[in-house]
Amino acid sequence: MAASHVHRRPWLLLLVVGLFGSAVSADEHEPANPGSADTEACLSCHGSDGSSLAPILEGQDEAYLNQQIARFRDHARQSFPMDALTQGLDDKTIATLSRELASRRWPSPRSESGPAEPAVAATDDIDLSVCAECHGKRLMGRSGIPRLAGQRSPYLMQQLEAIADERRPHPGDVGKSPPWSRSQTRALAQALEMEL
Predict the structure, then answer these.
(1) Are residues 60 and 125 in the same domain?
(2) What number is the average pLDDT over the span 94-120?
(3) In 3D, which of 18, 29, 70, 23 has the Cα closest to residue 44?
(4) Domain count, the chain
(5) What global pTM score does this model have?
(6) φ, ψ for residue 108 (rounded to 5)?
(7) What domain range is 176 assigned to?
């Protein structure tokens, strides 16, 4: 039974990539650090060129990636299509994916959400030292904790709202009550996207 499940997984990946990905042919874009077919399938949505609205995975912390992929697989974290794509992945495959993604260079920032100047001004009353306590002084992440600096603002906003609404668990005080208004959350997400 396990063997038939393994044979079905590549078809599921191809289906989701075909439906939701914006895959680039090898002739158009040769990755700097080619990895496994599974890694390339991840990047067809998460975008090695930095143009996708899915979160950036390249250069993200390896321990964090490993933890989150396992959480999707184990239904401890839910998000379409990740729930389906991670089913059947064993710990070794997850570790390999995490290592390959983490070894890649973080893409150059390219805001898809418009100019950041108003966003930066709107964050003047937000104390980023609260974020820096865990995510590091420059918000670059560390073992088991994700990088926020340079992450795509639509993804960050979605996650900040999920934490505030207690739909996504978060350690510490951030998840206990909505710390910022919606406009502050948007401003924070846009400012973080432009951080280097």
Answers:
(1) no
(2) 73
(3) 23
(4) 2
(5) 0.72
(6) -65, 145
(7) 117-194
